[in-house]
Amino acid sequence: MKERSLKIIAVYRQTVGKTMFLVGAVLASTNAYAQTTPDQDSAIAEIVVTAERREERLQDVPVAVTAITASQLTERVFYDPSQIQYIAPSLQTNGVSSAPGIANYSIRGVGTGSFSNAIEYSVSTMLDGVVLGRPELGVVQYLDVDRIEVLRGPQGTLFGKNASAGVINIVTALPMLNMSVYKANIEAAHVSSETGGFEGRVEGVANVPLTSTSTLRLSAFGNYHSPLVDNVYSGNNSDYAFREAGVKAKYLWQPTDRFRLYILGDYAGENGVGSGAFTLRRVGAGPAYPAVLAASIAASGITPGATNTANASDGPYGAKFQVGGAQAQIDYNLGGDYTLTNVSAWRFYRLNAAADSDLTDVNYFNQLALQLDDTQFSNETRLATPTGQRLQAQVGTFLYSGRFVRDSRVGALLGNTALPPGRNARGGSSDSVQHAKSAAAFGQMTFEVIPGFRLIAGGRLTYDDVSLDTASTLGNNVVAFFPVGTLKQGRTHTDFSYKGGMQWDLGKNSMAYFTYTRGYKGPAFNNTANSVAAVAVNPEIVKAYELGVKTTLLDRRLVLNLAAFTETFYDYQTTSLDPVLLQAVLQNAGNARSRGLELEFVARPFSYFTVSSGVTYADATAEDFTNAPCWVGQTVAEGCRVVRRGAPGSPAVTATDASGQRMVNAPKYAANATFQYKHQMFAKTDAFASLSGYYRTGSNFSNNGNPYTKIGGYGMIDGDLGLTAMDDRYRVALFVRNLTDRRFPAAIQANAAAPGAYQQSFTNNSFRTFGISFTYRY
Q: pTM of the full predicted structure?
């Protein structure tokens, strides 16, 4: 233990030293320019964030934060949650999740790859001040967004229990009093997929004052995307396209300066598989691939591979879900700028999905159906002291209740044509209901000991009560896919997470901070495999150190932020494919660790030219994951060992040592850069152009080092050019995403229908897209 502690301290000292060296070099390089008098139009605008649950300048917050503004989303023509990773390089989007529509994130290489809708995610999602128990309960599209804050590192003190790796804080535009605003946006694009895809989107926003003290803000959107995957089976009845639409209503009433009522309601629906369609990437890895499937693939003309975007599914393939909710927030100034805030919210999510797992025109493994029904209710109350004082503090309480229903239906002939009609060689059903209740009390304070030096302290006491009721049946099948039986179990846990640190001003426009945080993610159940394997998983604990420096130089023409971090996760919760059960199994994978450096800067040497960039180095690995399941076909020479001999006619239980393997979808390096040019053409008309690049090194979509789920490094280039007129009232732009048409998957998975086969999925970011957008504001 002592050697381990000394090793961590040594690594952290090296990391801190590198950071301080970079800071010193930058400050020295800018010293020669300190006496210049820049064009004030070149000053970089200040960004206000709520990274500590109150409004503060981004450069004043002692937290590593990437702030993405509404204008950045507009300029990049980004609207899908999977796209913000190209602006925030410490963030990655995982393609493996329990349902379509989920923005499953990882930060600094740490996230959650799980098919279970009973598990919390390590990266929490907050929408308009409401912590989402699971991200599908609120995020569909970035509609009428004011900003998105990517908070890196554990944030459980102020943001709740499922924030052990970070937070995505989404803030939509607040209704504006006494101001009428109307906005319409139309986009149309051609996607260079094999299906000759079309992408279209419309969006409208109206801010309508009702009285001098109240305003209604309405927004709506519609989106269509033609199939990304081509189903070459002539008789298919699948829905591979993607259609979604949604509305959001916000009401603000502020009768006095001391009282504000803010009510929100939203609803969205989606139809079609879209990026959830899979294609075969590889067959025949390990055990012999079933001959009947190999013959089908050969006859269809499909060639499995990294760029394969076609399948020949004869079974149903589709998805439909709905999401929405309502919330109310009350802010009341008690006097002396002491503010009491209460937020109550209810959210829901419904899903019906079906897939043809074998991806061929053979009725081999055709029936895979999933239904989810998730709801949550939460209430948070906070009391905040005035800002700008020697002591600044917040205290509060949080209550949460969630219900998560998962019904699965499976049926497979497995090439057996002798069975009576309606009978399957293997199949069954598994139904589960999980209840999750949580209560917490929290607080955080900053105390200025002497001018320019502040101490930070905070804590959160959390009580969790989770229960699972699951039942599996054989149905009209010969062999059970889910071991038949029922299981009821519960788990409670109380935890105290905390944060301590210091912050000091290095000068008028520079500050540094150091924090130590103990984060927490609650216990969970594996409800995806079967009633036998649906056992409780222990809580996940993280202990993290972070050192950061934030500087604003050259009269706000250069903003430079750096952070060094080391995070250790104990009893890390992760999911692997069990090659015996052919099911995803949730388990504690021992310890995991992430450490590295992050750099972000924005430079505006001229009023018409801006450069912004971010670089992340994150070494995220499992430290002692000794019982990871072997991948299908893994040999003894490759590290697969027998844990328990199987009964006669049954396979053995095997495991591999995945210690030292990189975390799921965790590139060691990721970077982006954007160059923006804007120049006045003539009165009230400006021309603009931008070029953006993104690159990440290779990673693996499995946590056991599976060579068949690896992906190499890749890069992307985006750009746009256009005109704005009448103070941005009119905006028209031509844009391109993925200019080089670099085909990269969103996920690579073992195919449960046929051992030794691997499948992949793609998003619209995986294809070159040319388009035009038009925006009108009034």
A: 0.90
